[in-house]
Amino acid sequence: MRFFDIIFSLFGLIVFSPFLLFICTLIVITSKGSAIFAHQRVGKGGVEFYCYKLRTMYEGSDKKGSYMTKINDKRITPLGHFLRKYSIDELPQLINVIKGELSLVGPRPDTPKQEKLYDVNDWKKRHSVRPGITGLAQIRARHIATNKNRMRYDLFYINQKSMGFYFWIIAQTIKNLVKNKSY
Predict the structure, then answer these.
(1) Would you place residue 106 in the very low, low, confident or very high pLDDT band (cuts 50, 70, 90)?
(2) What is the pLDDT of residue 85?
(3) Which of 91, 119, 143, 181 counts the most CB atoms within 10 A of its CB?
(4) How far apart are CA 183 and CA 179, in angstroms?
């Protein structure tokens, strides 16, 4: 799967780089702050790394409120709502994939603070694989999944992980994006 992660990510970065440059310019023009946001996350083996995203919130908003956003969250910029709706804000994570910190498919990476939500065994199991840009929880219940349901989906993926499941999740993610399914 690592081979496909690298190939798809390189292809995606090449194809989308002009679009990303345009979006980054719009972000800088429409709100204060840098275009790219780096947030500390936990990866495979519990190793922490910085996960890249296009900035969709007003500068400093990550320090206000929950790490989870809500629908119509006031911290999100008008452009940010559009970027999130189509998951465009996730495109810089292709760099994380090339660096080996993420996979295209896997559990979404946790913040270090989320460790307290898990028992020790579930935390270790969840971080026994590379986290992903998309995963089973994202295609099943993106914004409405409780922590318990998200963990259930993530552990199911880890236990059933296969090349076929990997490609199925990618296909379902694309299908949801094309249909603009809000999950």
Answers:
(1) very high
(2) 86
(3) 91
(4) 10
In the structure encoding, which two tokens stand for residue 101, read together?
């910190």
Cβ within 8 Å of residue 15, ≥6 positions away: none
How confident is the model over 95-105, as pLDDT tens digits? Answer: 999 999 999 99
| pLDDT reading at 142 higher than 70 | no
Whole-number Å distance between alpha carbons of 145 and 128: 22
**What pLDDT does residue 153 have?**
92
102, with CB counted inside 10 A (0-12, 13-18, 19+), is buried
DSSP string, the chain: -HHHHHHHHHHHHHHHHHHHHHHHHHHHHHSSS-SEEEEEEE-GGG-EEEEEEE--B-TTGGGSS-SS--TT-TTB-HHHHHHHHTTGGGTTHHHHHHHTS-EEESSPPBPGGGGGGS-HHHHHHHTSS--EEE-HHHHHHTTT--HHHHHHHHHHHHHH--HHHHHHHHHHHHHHHHHT---
pLDDT tens digits for range 37-80: 999 999 999 999 999 999 999 987 877 766 667 667 888 999 99
